[in-house]
Amino acid sequence: MSGDPYDGHNPLLVLLLALAGLLVTPWVGVRAVVLLIRAGATRSARTGAKGLAVLAWAGAVGVYTWGVLHLAFLDESGQSLACREAVGKETAQRVEGYEPSFVPLHFGCRVDGGRIHEAAVPGYVNPAAVIFGVIAVALTVAVRSHPEPAETTATSAPSST
Q1: Which SS3 state, helix, strand or coil, does residue 98 take?
Q2: What is 122-136 written as a DSSP string?
């Protein structure tokens, strides 16, 4: 970090996260839909839970990517404008620097006195990503802790040896 109080997010990392999210989210979402269709056809509760877990992962990645996309289109003038809108015209002259963070995802404007005002990233992004993430982890743990029952075949008979 250069120490400049007006440094925002690393633009290369923002670009990489945005591209990764734009590729992963639809891929995981399609995988979830396929699993849910398969669960409906086979009436398998485990496959249905697996599909819901994958869908929750897609939601978590998608919401986080949505927040990153808000940052991807912020140049220096966009950062200044976002801060001006967040703190108001009267306070805009007292902005001392920016407070960027990837976890939790936010772009904050620090005014004199140390108070941080959220700007650029919608307020629902972090709570939604956390909720989707918790649901995804819970469903993934539940699916992994209940292994798929082994299929039995009618031709296999117990051996008498």
Answers
A1: strand
A2: -TTHHHHHHHHHHHH
Cis bond leading into 104, ω under 30°? yes
Question: What residues have CB less than 8 Å from 38, skipping those under 6 apart?
Answer: 44, 47, 51
Q: State the Cα–Cα distance between residues 88 and 96, nearest whole angstrom.
A: 14
Closest CA to 125 of 46, 74, 66: 66
pLDDT tens digits along 49-87: 999 999 999 999 999 999 999 988 888 888 888 888 888
CB 79 within 8 Å of CB 120: yes
Find the DSSP H helices in the chain. Answer: 11-42, 45-72, 76-87, 125-145
